Amino acid sequence: MINYCEKWDLNPLLLPRHIGIIMDGNGRWAAKRHLPRIAGHRKGVERVQEITELSGNIGITALTLFAFSDENWRRPEDEVGGIMGLLRWYIRKEHKRIVDNNVQFRVIGDRRKLSMDIIELIEELEQDTEKNTGMHLSVALSYGAHGEILRAVKKIVDKVQEGNIFKDDIDACTFESCLDTQGLPPLDMFIRTSGEYRVSNFLLWQLAYAELFFDDVLWPDFDSEKFISLVRQFSLRERRFGMTSEQIAQKIVAHKHY
Ligand code: IPE
Ligand code: IPE
Ligand code: MG
Known about the structure:
- It is a single chain.
- By secondary structure, the protein is an alpha/beta fold.
- The chain contains nine helices and six strands, in the order αβααβαβαβααββαα.
- Helix 4 (77-100) runs parallel beside helix 5 (116-128).
- Mg(2+) binds at residues 24, 211.
- Belongs to the UPP synthase family.
- The active site is at 24, 72 (proton acceptor).
């Protein structure tokens, strides 16, 4: 079996467990080539396949990809229709591979806005990968963090009203268990492509202590080498979580001893 961390010269102990990516720049990629925007989205899907497979191979626990935002419904009808068509094609084509690769698939976001046949394709894939034990692949569709947080608040209110939990017992864990990302490890690394410096309503709660990476490459040009170079940069960052560098150094020593 190939050791992918060795192949890519990565330290497996310093990898992010959970990576979230805003895959941006498909439209500009197409415009640069005088192609319709959908051509950029099509090329973008190829990168999704490449980066997903690579993430699984190097041992990432969870990969969350922003594919279509709640705000993207505002785009011209033909573009929205084209993206939905690609989505159908992607799920049908990738279904078997995702199941066979032991991936745990889920869609996050407000899926009620999607068409019935797409919801069925998603649910089928979620069910067929439910018992898998490999990487968590979450695709954010019709997703907005404000909506996700509000849905979580409503779930908690229901629990309080039903007497299943006391108001004073609500803590961060309770809240996280009501988010769409429930059960996933904390978000360690955030990537946005295409040189835009904003988070566009993506994983706002989960971003609390993520390391942020903004890259100029347009998503359809975001290849394995680029991805690995960012993951390598992540490994070099010191994450302090409010502590001092000295404390972190001691913790690392302590880990080595015990
Ligand atoms: C990201 O690419 C994909 C979606 C939002 C669906 P864009 O379509 O936003 O590409 P740009 O930002 O216009 O280049
Ligand atoms: C955000 O991209 C959503 C996805 C990549 C799917 P946008 O390109 O729609 O974001 P804004 O509106 O420019 O911030
Ligand atoms: Mg964009």
